[in-house]
Every structure is written in structure tokens, then in C-alpha cells.
């Protein structure tokens, strides 16, 4: 869970189609405040008038005067409609399992507010404003990991958030203390809402949870793939490899944009390296390095291109009004299938595959540095006294265990479907499950890349008196501020964790970019 920082200024203004990925990260991870635009308030008031008119219509209208899902054929009399909406929220708040991370819940809440703000859901402005007030107060509903099938919306997670607006259920306050929602709202000076026609349905019918996790994963992966480029360059220095394969004209022969960006990063990270220069002046130069070194831009670049595709899907979702039924621009209320999570689920699965491969090639580079048959003069396992010391032998085991797990997490969730709601909802996306496993995959890949950075820096130190170039030296200095250099075996777990923190916080990418001839992409 990301540590919160003071709110950003100015606040994120939620307007129709205006929310950006950066806004989501700012609210979810840094507690930026949220405001509703005047245009959104006006749009909500206009569409609410349509719902109010339909509430008086003797003809049944789904979500307004009928039951839900498989019970949509039952007409609900006016005196029971408030109960209908509250009952929907209470019964659908049925999640179970480990608690979902605070940043995920905050992203989900913001994205539901964004859909409400389109004016296409028919809720009163006070409903959206109350949601904003709860989010700004730092109140976070407690949601279990299981409960969404990624269709008809992330029903259970969204229902827990809606339940908090009613002053029911359990939440955490800004300080992380668990308490009844009613107490948290009272402490923040927020009045619980009383739902009216259509409003309960509008609060739960969206793909906000899986979209929020997609956006957060992309935020993490942008830093991680650049860090992986740096890690690969460090490994090439440590193995005294060949940087000629990363030249721009060679990359342009296969014009994938991601490949070009990663190759440029690696070439920049290797600029001015005495270790690389030494391979060109010692007589024999290896013409071709192993694939894990030579083909790193092709693999890392494919990850980048996959991210670009996922970001395109996310941008379309951010511009969407996902609800059923919706109030159209010309004032009709229509049922639709826009709540189906397939578009998001597919790219979540695609990213899990790419993330697993990013980690896989990183582990292969690490293993090469530890093997005396392939490391070109380094001590076995980078041990100080091989035999007495084991060096980084088991650090690679840790990587291997994670990579194996990532391969299992790469199995698509979106190809599965279990019918629900008495076969009314007979095909579902499982996008929430795809998002949950992607979060685990990104965390695992971060740890794998961190071990490569740790190992490569140790190997570079063991090449003395030869040294790394400016970028490698900057990364090594950052690591050495937390982890000692080579020597007899020490307790290794804290050193791995220190490297993980440097990678996950973006420090490796940041110091590398600052030391490079040009900022890294």
C-alpha cells in the first residue's frame, strides 16, 4: 500500500471525459482532493429530471420501477423504491477475503464519481457530491478481494463503497483506523444519503475497480520497464558485453517504437563505460552476446508496446459512461451492455504476460553473472571466497521462484466465465480477477529486477579497477548508500529488500536518467 502524502494543489476537477491517468494516480496514491465541475453538476441535474419523470410513468422502466438482473420483470410500487435501492446495495456488498488495498479502493471511488459526473446515470448531484466528500475525507470502505465477476460492473466492491455513503458497513478513516461507516461520516461532518429511484443501480454498475487497477499498474510499469532497461545495461557492463547491437540504425530496421525506446535507453546508460570500452581494446571482442543481453530491447520494447495498447484502452474507458440503464443525450433511458469488462480484462491479461516475460529475461541475465562458465572471469556466484561463501546463489533462487509464479499469473483470467444471476448474466469477463493477478505480477517483477540491479552492481564492483560509466556509477552509488559492497557473506534478505525499495520508489530510474546523456524514456 502506497504511503499517502499531503494533498496536491490544485484539486482534481472531475468533469465529463476530463479525467486523466495522472489524476487517478494523484487521488489514489497521493490523496489529491477532488471537485465536481459546474458542467457535471448541471448535467446530473438535467438527467435526474428524466428519471423523476419516468418514476411517475405507469409503464415499467428497468432500475427505476423494476427489480434487477433476473428479477427485472417484477414491478416495484413507488412506496418500496427507496427500499429497493438500499436493499440492492446491502445485498450486493458481499465481498470476502483479504482486504483490497487503499489505493485501489480510492481509484475505484474516483472512477465511479467520474461516471456519475457524465450525467448519464440519472443520479441527483447530491449523490455524487457526497461520494466526493467521502473520498476527500480519506474514508475508505473495507472491501474483500473476492466478489466481482467483471460484468454488470464490479458489483460487490462498488456496493461496499455505496454502502458507506448510506452510513453503513465498515470503513477505515484517514489514519487507517477501522470503524463503522456511520461513525466515520459523522466525524467528517458528512450526512448519509437516502437513495431514490435508479441511484443504487448507478452506484454499482461499472468497471471502475478493474480500470483503476489497470491505471495503477500502468503507472508502476512505466517506471519498471525503464528500470529494467537500466538493469540490463548494468548487467552488460558487469559481463563486459557488446553495446554495438543497440545502435539506432539497427533498431530502425525493425521499427517497433518500444524497442527503439529501450535500445536508446540502454545505449545511453552504457555511454562512457570503461568496462564496455575495455572489451574493444583487449584483443578479442565477442561478436554476439547471449539473447538475454542482445535481445533485451526487443523484449523490453514489446512490453512497452503492450503498455501503449493497454493505455489506449484505458483512455477510452476514462471517456466512458458505464452504467445500465443510461440516460442518453436526447433524454431516453436505455438498457445496454457497456458494463461488460472484456475490453479491460483482455489488456489486463496481456500485461500480465508481458510482465512475466520482463521478469523472465531479467532472471536470465542475473543467472549468467553467477555462472563462472558464462560470466567471463567473475567469481562463482559472485562469492567473496567461493566455497566458504555462497554470494548471490540464493538471490537467484528467489528470482526463479517469483518468475515461476509470474508464469502462472500470466494464464488469462478473461477466457473463463461462470454464469450467474439465474443465467441472466451468462457470460462474464473475470476482469477483476485479471486485475488482481496483474497487481501481484507487477510486484513480483519489481522484485526480480531489483535482484538483477543488486547482483549487477556487485559484479561491477568485482571488476575493479575497471568501473562503470556515469549511469552505472550513479546507480551503484545510490545502492551503496543502503547496501555495502562485496565482501564475506552477510544476511542477504535486507539487502534485497533495500534494492526492491530503490526500484519500486523509482529511484534507480531517476538517478540513471539524471546521469544519462539525455533523460531516459
Automatic annotation (TrEMBL):
<dbReference type="GO" id="GO:0019557">
    <property type="term" value="P:L-histidine catabolic process to glutamate and formate"/>
</dbReference>
<dbReference type="Pfam" id="PF00221">
    <property type="entry name" value="Lyase_aromatic"/>
</dbReference>
<protein>
    <recommendedName>
        <fullName>Histidine ammonia-lyase</fullName>
        <ecNumber>4.3.1.3</ecNumber>
    </recommendedName>
</protein>
<dbReference type="InterPro" id="IPR001106">
    <property type="entry name" value="Aromatic_Lyase"/>
</dbReference>
<dbReference type="GO" id="GO:0004397">
    <property type="term" value="F:histidine ammonia-lyase activity"/>
</dbReference>
<dbReference type="InterPro" id="IPR008948">
    <property type="entry name" value="L-Aspartase-like"/>
</dbReference>
<keyword id="KW-0369">Histidine metabolism</keyword>
<comment type="similarity">
    <text>Belongs to the PAL/histidase family.</text>
</comment>
<dbReference type="InterPro" id="IPR005921">
    <property type="entry name" value="HutH"/>
</dbReference>
<dbReference type="GO" id="GO:0005737">
    <property type="term" value="C:cytoplasm"/>
</dbReference>
<dbReference type="InterPro" id="IPR022313">
    <property type="entry name" value="Phe/His_NH3-lyase_AS"/>
</dbReference>
<dbReference type="GO" id="GO:0019556">
    <property type="term" value="P:L-histidine catabolic process to glutamate and formamide"/>
</dbReference>
<keyword id="KW-0456">Lyase</keyword>
<dbReference type="InterPro" id="IPR024083">
    <property type="entry name" value="Fumarase/histidase_N"/>
</dbReference>
<comment type="pathway">
    <text>Amino-acid degradation; L-histidine degradation into L-glutamate; N-formimidoyl-L-glutamate from L-histidine: step 1/3.</text>
</comment>
Amino acid at each position: 500500500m502506497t504511503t499517502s502524502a499531503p494533498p496536491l494543489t490544485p484539486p482534481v476537477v472531475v468533469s465529463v471525459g476530463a479525467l486523466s491517468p495522472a489524476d487517478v494516480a494523484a487521488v489514489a496514491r497521493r490523496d489529491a482532493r477532488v471537485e465536481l465541475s459546474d458542467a457535471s453538476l448541471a448535467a446530473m441535474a438535467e438527467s435526474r429530471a428524466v428519471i423523476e419523470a419516468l418514476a411517475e410513468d405507469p409503464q415499467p422502466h428497468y432500475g427505476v420501477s423494476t427489480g434487477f438482473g433476473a428479477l427485472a420483470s417484477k414491478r416495484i410500487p413507488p412506496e418500496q423504491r427507496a427500499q429497493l435501492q438500499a436493499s440492492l446495495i446491502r445485498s450486493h456488498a458481499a465481498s470476502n477475503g483479504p482486504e483490497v488495498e487503499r489505493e485501489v479502493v480510492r481509484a475505484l471511488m474516483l472512477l465511479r464519481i467520474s461516471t456519475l459526473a457524465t450525467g448519464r446515470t440519472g443520479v441527483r448531484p447530491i449523490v455524487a457530491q457526497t461520494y466526493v466528500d467521502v473520498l476527500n475525507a480519506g474514508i475508505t470502505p473495507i472491501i474483500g478481494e473476492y466478489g466481482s465477476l467483471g460484468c454488470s460492473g464490479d458489483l460487490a466492491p462498488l456496493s461496499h463503497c455505496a454502502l458507506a455513503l448510506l452510513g453503513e458497513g465498515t470503513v477505515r478513516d484517514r489514519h487507517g483506523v477501522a470503524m463503522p461507516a456511520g461513525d466515520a461520516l459523522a466525524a467528517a461532518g458528512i450526512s448519509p444519503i437516502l437513495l431514490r429511484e435508479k441511484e443504487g443501480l448507478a452506484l454499482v454498475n461499472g468497471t471502475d475497480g478493474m480500470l483503476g487497477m489497470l491505471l495503477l499498474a500502468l503507472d508502476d510499469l512505466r517506471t519498471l520497464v525503464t528500470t529494467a532497461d537500466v538493469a540490463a545495461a548494468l548487467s552488460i557492463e558487469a559481463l563486459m558485453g557488446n553495446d554495438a547491437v543497440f545502435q539506432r540504425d539497427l533498431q530502425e530496421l525493425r521499427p517497433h517504437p518500444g524497442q527503439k525506446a529501450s535500445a536508446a535507453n540502454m545505449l545511453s546508460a552504457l555511454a562512457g563505460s570503461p568496462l564496455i570500452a575495455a572489451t574493444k581494446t583487449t584483443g578479442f571482442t565477442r561478436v554476439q552476446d547471449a539473447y538475454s543481453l542482445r535481445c533485451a530491447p526487443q523484449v523490453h520494447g514489446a512490453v512497452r508496446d503492450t503498455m501503449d495498447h493497454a493505455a489506449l484502452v484505458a483512455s477510452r474507458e476514462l471517456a466512458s459512461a458505464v452504467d445500465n440503464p443510461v440516460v442518453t443525450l436526447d433524454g431516453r433511458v436505455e438498457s445496454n451492455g457497456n458494463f461488460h469488462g472484456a475490453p479491460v480484462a483482455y489488456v489486463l491479461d496481456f500485461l500480465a504476460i508481458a510482465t512475466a516475460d520482463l521478469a523472465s529475461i531479467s532472471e536470465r541475465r542475473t543467472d549468467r553473472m553467477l555462472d563462472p562458465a558464462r560470466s567471463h572471469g567473475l567469481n562463482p556466484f559472485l562469492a567473496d571466497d567461493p566455497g566458504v561463501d555462497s554470494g548471490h546463489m540464493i538471490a537467484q533462487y528467489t528470482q526463479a521462484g517469483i518468475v515461476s509464479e509470474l508464469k502462472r499469473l500470466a494464464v488469462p483470467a478473461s477466457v473463463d466465465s461462470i454464469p450467474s444471476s439465474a443465467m441472466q448474466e451468462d457470460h462474464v469477463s473475470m476482469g477483476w480477477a485479471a486485475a488482481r493477478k496483474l497487481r501481484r505480477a507487477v510486484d513480483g517483477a519489481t522484485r526480480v529486477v531489483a535482484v538483477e540491479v543488486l547482483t549487477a552492481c556487485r559484479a561491477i564492483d568485482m571488476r575493479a579497477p575497471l568501473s562503470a560509466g556515469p549511469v552505472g556509477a550513479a546507480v551503484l552509488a545510490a545502492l551503496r548508500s543502503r547496501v555495502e559492497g562485496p565482501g564475506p557473506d552477510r544476511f542477504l534478505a535486507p539487502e534485497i529488500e533495500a534494492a526492491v525499495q530503490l526500484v519500486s520508489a523509482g529511484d534507480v530510474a531517476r538517478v540513471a536518467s539524471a546521469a544519462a546523456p539525455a533523460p531516459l524514456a
